[in-house]
Specification:
By secondary structure, the chain is α+β, with helices and mostly antiparallel strands. It has 2 domains: 211 residues, no CATH class; 167 residues, no CATH class. It is built from 12 helices and 10 strands. Strands 4-3-2-1-7-8-9-10 form an 8-stranded antiparallel beta sheet. It has a two-stranded antiparallel ribbon with strand order 5-6. A hairpin with an 8-residue loop joins strand 1 and strand 2. The longest helix has 53 residues. It is elongated and about 90 Å long. Pfam families: PepSY_TM. Keywords: Membrane, Transmembrane, Transmembrane helix.
Length: 418
């Protein structure tokens, strides 16, 4: 590009922006890339590491989900089931999420040292319990720990601000901006486009490091930008993404956030409401045009809100497409308060539905997850090579500055001698 053109004059500014935006996000993206490469396979790895937690010990016909929930809560009266599968696949355990009940004496939640329990679905016997997301490298906690680290960095929530969510959301915004700067810098002219796609493997050293950073980013640029956009959605969907999308397309209310909470349910009301909702779930789903069977149930008894997910046993992860349908219901009346049905709604609604499936790669099934896992490793590599390039150039600048200072000193002495 000729020196007089505006793009050429802007290049030094873009280089500085790329340098400082990249350095500012490098550590976060390195962690996110490595953990993302692992958690693309979180369920498989978790089951591999903890077979007794995920594999049922007794062959036979599983007990009904509501019966298993009753047995769990009878054994743990301070716990209430907040999520449970309504059916399980052959050889699988029945894994429920629990939360502490409210202590009527203090008005505060009871203390629990677990939030996830696995039962043998045939006998109801407990096979394991854990605190999902606990910062621990123990085998039972490792994969949930990495999942939580990926999204929150275990940063605290203070003054109502979730610093983990906001940090990773802002990093996503920085990454998206830096990605567009990087693609402009990667192609300084039409004549040199081949260099931006090449890897000088035989040269090795700094040349290969530079090519891994530049050309590696170019080859996967589209996928990297998809992950950057979806990472913003995963963390700042309500605060940033939905307001932006709503400018271009009408959005239905978020069924998981916009439902006004009602009065809290007593334990007896909760148990009765669960039975009503589960019994009616199949017919309610058909009325909403959902063909899949009821597969999962979540409850927020303190808000009087329940939800049902529709999928076959073992398909709770939404391994292809836009995920599974969900209905949010009034616990007392069974009325549908909100719905998320993949592929239904405005263009903006479908865009929002696609964010997690795109981010996890599950939208394309197994090939998508392989691509996301590989891209996570590339993100970590780009972070490392970017820092190495900066260190080399910083040393060169310091050396040049010292050489210039030394030469200036010599000239000064020569003038003084003359």
């Amino acid at each position: 590009m000729p020196a007089g053109e505006p793009g050429f004059r802007m290049r030094p500014l873009l280089v500085r922006l790329h340098r400082w935006l990249g350095l500012g996000a490098a550590a976060f993206l390195f962690l996110a890339g490595l953990t993302g490469a692992v958690i693309a396979w979180d369920h498989e790895l978790d089951a591999l590491l903890n077979p007794s937690f995920f594999r049922g010990a007794t062959p036979g016909t599983p007990l009904p989900a509501l019966e298993l929930a009753k047995r769990l809560e009878a054994g743990e009266p301070h716990a209430v089931v907040t999520f449970m599968p309504l059916s399980v696949g052959p050889g699988q355990t029945w894994i429920a999420r629990v939360a502490p009940r409210i202590d009527p004496q203090t008005g505060q939640p009871f203390t629990l040292d677990f939030n996830q329990v696995a039962l043998d679905p045939v006998t109801g016997a407990e096979q394991g319990r854990r605190m999902w997301g606990k910062p621990s490298l123990a085998r039972q906690n490792l994969i949930p720990f990495l999942y939580q680290l990926h999204y929150t960095l275990f940063l605290p929530t203070k003054m109502g601000i979730d610093f983990g969510v906001w940090t990773m959301g802002v990093v996503g915004i920085v990454w998206l901006l830096d990605g567009f700067i990087a693609i402009v810098l990667a192609f300084p002219s039409l004549k040199s486009w081949r260099k931006s796609l090449a890897f000088r493997v035989k040269r090795g050293g700094y040349a290969l490091t530079f090519d891994l950073h530049r050309s590696g980013g170019v080859w996967l640029w589209g996928l990297l930008m998809v992950i950057a956009v979806t990472s913003i959605s995963m963390n700042l969907g309500t605060q940033v993404v939905r307001p932006v999308v709503s400018v271009f397309s009408t959005l239905a209310p978020d069924p998981f956030r916009s439902v006004a909470p009602g009065p809290a349910l007593t334990p007896a009301e909760d148990a009765a409401a669960r039975e009503r909702i589960v019994a009616a779930a199949a017919s309610v789903g058909r009325r909403e045009g959902i063909t899949a069977p009821p597969g999962g149930f979540f409850a927020v008894p303190t808000a009087g809100v329940y939800g049902v997910g529709y999928y076959a046993a073992g398909d709770d992860h939404g391994d292809a497409g836009l995920g599974n349908p969900w209905l949010v219901m009034n616990a007392r009346t069974g009325a549908v308060l909100g719905r998320q049905i993949p592929g239904h709604g405005s263009a903006g609604d479908i865009f929002i539905q696609a964010q997690f499936p795109l981010h996890s790669g599950r939208i394309a099934g197994l090939p998508g997850r392989i691509a996301i896992s590989f891209t996570g490793l590339v993100v970590a590599m780009l972070s490392v090579t970017g820092v190495l390039i900066w260190l080399k150039k910083a040393r060169a600048r310091r050396k040049t500055a010292k050489g210039g200072k030394a030469a200036s000193t010599v000239r000064t002495r020569e003038r003084a001698a003359n």
